[in-house]
Design brief:
The complex is a heterodimer. Chain A is an alpha/beta fold. Chain A is built from 17 helices and 21 strands. In chain A, strand 6, helix 3 and strand 7 form a beta-alpha-beta unit. The chains are: A alpha/beta, B alpha/beta.
Chain lengths: 435, 128
């Protein structure tokens, strides 16, 4: 059977034009997807079944046993961390908020090791936003700053930005000015009209210099962040001459010295460019629904990430309540990890702290976090084996189809079952105490 | 040689990132790219490894020359090998500094550790 208009559940582009061929209950061929999306949709070896660690070794268990053991761990913890959530659908994330409230935990997403500084920067400054459709149809000048979509979002340029033909951009790539700002040459910079190479960690200074030039104040040093003044003057002119400019930024800004202040400065530059022309700005979100967990947490708690429910009301203070901080300070005494792999993606000393506490893992695949886990619960792959809602990097909500049946429960079902087990065990112990 | 390490996404890392126990993920992420000049200065050849270390940790990676990198900057695809060199401090914003990390780089005869071996000292306690 051929399924058209399938949404890819890899990156924040959420490409919605994928064709998937399904044979004998499995995806047999994928068309139109990039290499990243195709590799995910075609799948590979899965975790066979639930496991609980006994005497240091993971042994097979039933799903109910795994749910109950997970619930026991969360109930016994004083400060459980519920982390991940970016590679699953909003329906599972909503259940996660209920579970975090029930156990008084901290709910944090992979944004905090990715675009978390962007979220903070946006809170500080605001975001001159647009949809990707507006960029496709109108943008004549596009800046990629500290991002490399040719490798991280391979179809971004073809569907939404530099190379796509839109309603008011009939010439596609030929009608656009593409600028890349980075510390190195990349596959993305090979497609640029202008590459500005800056020194590592100098984003804040270079953006500040551009803000000066855009506002007509040419009193900047002869070189800023390794870039000649003349080059920056030329770049400022390109930005001001745009009829519709789009500024995409990536982890080059959020992971470098300055972090959220870099983002704040970039958003300020774009806000000021709107005194001269139309300019929009967007973070290049990585996981396909990392924007969704921000939305779900924001509408349910008022905060977009790192939300602490321990006080009986939501509390947010990244630096204190973010996953890496909780672990590094050894505050968290249990962790539920869903649709993420912190063992690979956190600093090593933070991983060492994670290994010292009981970890519950919910994931379709074995990864280094499995090696640290006390309970492992394999799940259906959202967007392929389970339907649900995801938010594209521009904030557009899209409905993901279920393509094939799966013997595995969905993330939503697993979280729901753990929540039920938590409530049941709490009632039982309360009943026991009353007797 | 002193250098600035940045970690980031690559196509090969992305293709293998949902299959982290695989040889493909190991090959995609246990690689250190150096500028051509730095590569030559360290006397590296195809198949040679480099040892990167700093106050946070160390990692042995296979070396590769990248003409797009400036001198003094090394690139490692995001993953557990790069993160062996990243500190836990988040500067109060929740996010560690994964890019712009000072490292010492030298050629080495030591082998690149596989993913299970890389985590061996951490998982010892869990498996005890």
């Amino acid at each position: 059977m051929i399924q058209e208009d399938v949404i890819c559940s890899f990156c924040g582009c959420l490409c919605d034009d994928i064709t998937a061929e399904v044979e004998a209950g499995a995806v047999s061929r994928v068309r139109h997807a990039c290499r990243l999306g195709a590799s995910k949709m075609m799948g590979h070896d899965r975790i066979k079944g639930p496991m609980i660690r006994e005497d240091g070794t993971l042994v097979e268990a039933s799903y109910q046993e795994a749910y109950d053991r997970a619930a026991q761990i969360l109930l016994a913890a004083r400060r459980p961390l519920l982390y991940g959530w970016a590679s699953t659908v909003c329906e599972a994330q909503e259940k996660g908020v209920l579970l975090a409230e029930e156990v008084g935990g901290v709910m944090d997403s992979t944004a905090t090791v990715c675009h978390g500084p962007s979220v903070i920067g946006i809170e500080e400054k605001g975001l001159a936003s647009s949809t990707l459709g507006q960029v496709k149809n109108r943008a004549d000048t596009i800046v990629f700053w500290g991002c490399n979509p040719a490798e991280a979002h391979p179809r971004h340029s073809l569907r939404y930005s530099s190379n796509v033909v839109g309603r008011f951009t009939p010439l596609g790539r030929a009608g656009r000015k593409i600028v890349v700002v980075d510390i190195r040459e990349t596959r993305t910079s090979k497609n640029a009209d202008k590459l500005v190479l800056i020194e590592p960690g100098s984003d804040y200074e270079v953006i500040s210099a551009l803000r000066m030039l855009v506002s007509g104040k040419a009193v900047i040093p002869e070189r800023v962040g390794g870039v000649d003044k003349a080059d920056l003057v030329a770049l400022a002119e390109i930005l001001k001459r745009a009829k519709f400019g789009a500024f995409f930024f990536g982890l080059g800004i959020t992971h470098s010295r300055g972090r959220y202040k870099n983002v704040d400065n970039a958003l300020s530059l774009v806000a000021e460019l709107n005194s001269y022309t139309k300019f929009v700005v967007m973070p290049m979100r990585g996981h396909y629904n990392v924007a969704g967990i921000g939305q779900v947490l924001a509408w349910s708690s008022g905060f977009p990430m790192s939300v602490d429910f321990a006080r009986g009301m939501p509390y947010f203070n990244p630096g204190e309540t973010a996953a890496c901080d909780l672990l590094a300070r050894q505050d968290a005494d249990a962790a539920l990890i869903i649709a993420a792999d912190p063992a690979s993606n956190f600093p090593r000393s933070t991983v060492q702290a994670l290994a010292r506490i009981p970890v519950i893992q919910i994931d379709p695949y074995e990864n280094p976090t499995t090696l640290l886990s006390k309970v492992v619960i394999p799940s259906a792959i959202a967007g392929i084996e389970a339907a649900g809602t995801a938010y594209r990097m521009d904030g557009l909500a899209l409905r993901m189809k279920k393509l094939i049946d799966s013997p595995y429960p969905s993330d939503e079902e697993i979280i729901g079952q753990i929540l039920e087990s938590v409530k049941r065990q709490r009632e039982m112990s309360a009943g026991g105490a009353a007797r | 040689m002193k250098a600035i390490m940045i970690s980031g996404r690559t196509l090969a890392q992305g293709v293998a990132c949902e299959n982290k126990m695989s040889a493909d993920f190991l090959a995609a992420t246990s690689v250190c790219s150096l500028s051509q000049g730095d590569y030559q200065q360290l006397g590296l050849l195809e198949g040679k490894n480099v040892l990167l270390k700093n106050g946070f940790g160390q990692a042995v990676l296979s070396a590769r020359s990248d003409p797009g990198l400036p001198a003094g900057v090394v690139f490692i695809p995001m993953g557990p090998w790069a993160n062996a060199l990243v500190g836990s401090d988040t500067g109060g914003c929740g996010t560690p500094q994964f890019k712009g990390v000072e490292v010492e780089v030298e050629a080495t005869e030591a082998p690149v550790l596989g993913v299970r071996d890389l985590f061996r000292d951490i998982t010892k306690g869990v498996e005890a």
